[in-house]
Amino acid sequence: MKTAEQIKEEVKEKYSEIASQDKEQNLSSCCGASCCSNEVYNIMSDDYSAVEGYNPDADLGLGCGLPTQFAKIKKGDVVVDLGSGAGNDCFIARKETGAEGKVIGIDMTEAMINRARANAEKAGFNNVEFRIGEIEKLPLTSNVVDVIVSNCVLNLVPDKRKAFEEIYRVLKPGGHFSISDIVLTGELPDKILHAAEMYAGCVAGAIQKEEYLHIVSELGFENISLQKEKIITVPDDILSNYLTPDEIRSYKEKGTGIFSITVYAEKNKIACCDSDTCCN
After folding, report:
1. Using CA of residue 60, residue 61, residue 63, residue 68, what is the dihedral sign?
2. Rounded to 5 degrees, what angle do the CA atoms 91, 76, 130 make?
3. Nearest residue to 152 (alpha-carbon basis) of 31, 257, 66, 30
4. What are the DSSP calls for 2-37, one per residue?
5. Rg of the chain over all Cα atoms, to the nearest angstrom
6. Which CATH class is domain 4-266?
């Protein structure tokens, strides 16, 4: 069993490699009508091209939803994107929050942060910033964020409960999140669970849908809802990198479901934020 730190290092290494590529390289073998991808990241991504604020230089094709589309961002909001990559969701959020708002992207991969900063500088955005940090220990003070978005990233976090505790901590009372992520119904084979490539592609790090929503509820979030849900089919050519033909057949017969979900939830308006401070 790999430690949390080993998983993080593997993810950092893989996403540092991806940060040096463009979307065309990442999607060069993307799953289409008659062929399939060798990269598990690309079978989940949604099309951003028609979304206002879209920046093609910041789109690496790594998401599994469009959380900003559902995030109810208002003018002047402080928005944080967890696992901001090259900045795609941050730039879309900026379109919603306007020049009077602020957008902060947080990523643990230095190469991604550098690429996102270059994209923001090129666009001339002075109210979008990028900070290096981990989701389990966010580089933010408590009760400062109106809206949190994240796109297919919490799968990469070994301690998901701690991640949601941090989300709760930094949100203002009455603030909310809209997070796109991957969840499971049924169990993945061990060979997939232990594959770094599949982990970095957000499949091996997925937990059960029921457990995911239970964590959110147990921590005190309110008005929890699924804004979108779709099933993800992993093509045989990807599965064959990890499983034998018999194992693939057995995996399919067990009916494991891999889903992309977009979850919305709010922090209580009168929530006590930590052991020392209660918020009005």
Report:
1. positive
2. 40
3. 66
4. --HHHHHHHHHHHHHHHHTS-HHHHTTT---SS---
5. 18
6. alpha beta
Amino acid type, 195: A
Q: Any idea how long the chain is?
A: 280
Nearest to 80 by CA among 139, 23, 155: 139
Q: Is-contact 14 196, C-beta < 8 A?
A: yes
How far is it, in rounded angstroms, from Cα 198 to Cα 190? 11
Using CA atoms, how far apart are residues 128 and 142, in angstroms rounded to an integer? 19
Token output for 237: 């050519």
* Per-residue tokens: 150: 């994240």
- The residue ranges of every structural domain in the chain are 4-266
Entry pTM: 0.81
Of the candidates 145, 158, 167, 136, which has an alpha carbon nearest to the alpha carbon of residue 265?
Answer: 167
Beta-ladder partners of 82:
106, 150
What backbone phi and psi angles, to 5 degrees, belong to 44?
A: -110, -15
Q: Which two tokens stand for residue 110?
A: 């230095």
Residue indicated by tokens 């067990």:
254
Q: What are the pLDDT digits (tens) for 193-237?
A: 665 455 445 565 788 899 999 999 999 999 999 999 988 777 787
CA distances from 176 to 73, 96, 265, 270, 277 (A): 10, 15, 6, 13, 19
Closest to 71 (Cα-Cα) out of 163, 145, 165:
145
